[in-house]
UniProtKB/TrEMBL annotation:
The chain crosses the membrane at residues 38-71. Keywords: Membrane, Signal, Transmembrane, Transmembrane helix. The lineage of its organism: Bacteria, Pseudomonadati, Pseudomonadota, Alphaproteobacteria, Rhodospirillales. This is Uncharacterized protein. Residues 1-23 form the signal peptide. The keyword Signal applies. It comes from Novispirillum itersonii.
């Protein structure tokens, strides 16, 4: 017996709560968040290609992306 319906409902609720938290963000906060997400993906991709640690690449990319996103949001 699997709990697929419960897992799906839980995932949908978590996603809904996470996205509703973004509704009251300022432009700078939204850009910092999206910059961090894009930077994390880019950093992980570069690390995978270069043979480095994925987590390290993602953290460095997220930090840089969030900083650049926040600066462009002003």
């Amino acid at each position: 017996m699997t709990n697929r319906p419960l897992t799906s409902v839980t995932a949908a609720l978590v996603l809904a709560f996470a996205l509703s938290g973004c509704a009251n963000m300022t432009n700078t906060q939204q850009r910092a968040l999206s910059g961090g997400a894009i930077g994390a993906a880019g950093g992980a991709a570069v690390a995978a290609i270069a043979g480095g640690g994925l987590v390290t690449g993602a953290l460095i990319g997220a930090g840089g992306g969030a900083a650049i996103g926040a600066l462009t949001g002003k």
